[in-house]
Amino acid sequence: MNADKLLDEISGRKPGILGENGFLRFAVLLPLVDMDGEIHVLFEVRASHLRRQPGEVCFPGGKMDKGDPDEKHCAIRETTEELGIFENDIQKVIPLDYMVSAYGTIIYPFVGIIANTEDMRPNEDEVGEIFTVPLSFFLNTKPDIHTIHYHVKPEDGFPFDLIVGGENYKWQTRQMDEYFYHYDGKVIWGLTARVLLHFIDLIKNK
């Protein structure tokens, strides 16, 4: 096989994320609702009995199932299950930028409109409460920013003798900004705040 034929075999493929098959994939929905003629953002508070992140503010969403044909379907499915609404209650769902986290996950955020909030029945197994915040608050309020510093810690028995520099190798370290919004006693931070800020930036840039 020559080089031309070799490259022909892989030409035309759509590039993905290197190693993505080993990543967990999640999808979330940033829900917009109309309240008295004003746009609000709807949030969930995770149920206090949950093992993972109990009591934290989040958007509806979750891990992709094998039955989900794509990320958008996952975001809609999880939203219907968590908020107790029907699929046709969710309208105009569009993708936002996706995120590859440092924890081996890919998060696919979407934004959409929930047209019917009157019949909403949140799933008590997952949702402690729901609340809304006027979109205008986020348009006019900058989040607090705090920085997290990540450090590399090789495992015991790491083969330092195989790399130049050995135990004195200059590992690259990184940092990440965390955003915090405060509204009516609620703290919105982490991935939720990051997705929210991205959405707000898109609106302002348009």
From TrEMBL:
Source organism, top-level taxon: Bacteria
Gene3D superfamilies in alphabetical order: Nucleoside Triphosphate Pyrophosphohydrolase (3.90.79.10)
Keywords, comma-separated and alphabetical: Hydrolase, Magnesium, Manganese, Metal-binding
Pfam families hit by this protein: NUDIX (PF00293)
Cofactor(s) recorded in Swiss-Prot or TrEMBL: Mg(2+); Mn(2+)
Signal peptide interval: none
InterPro entries with a match to the protein in the record: CoAse, NUDIX_hydrolase-like_dom_sf, NUDIX_hydrolase_dom
Record domain Nudix hydrolase: where: 23-156
GO molecular function: coenzyme A diphosphatase activity; metal ion binding
Keyword DNA-binding attributed: no
PANTHER family according to UniProt: MITOCHONDRIAL COENZYME A DIPHOSPHATASE NUDT8, NUDIX HYDROLASE
Name the record gives this protein: NUDIX domain-containing protein
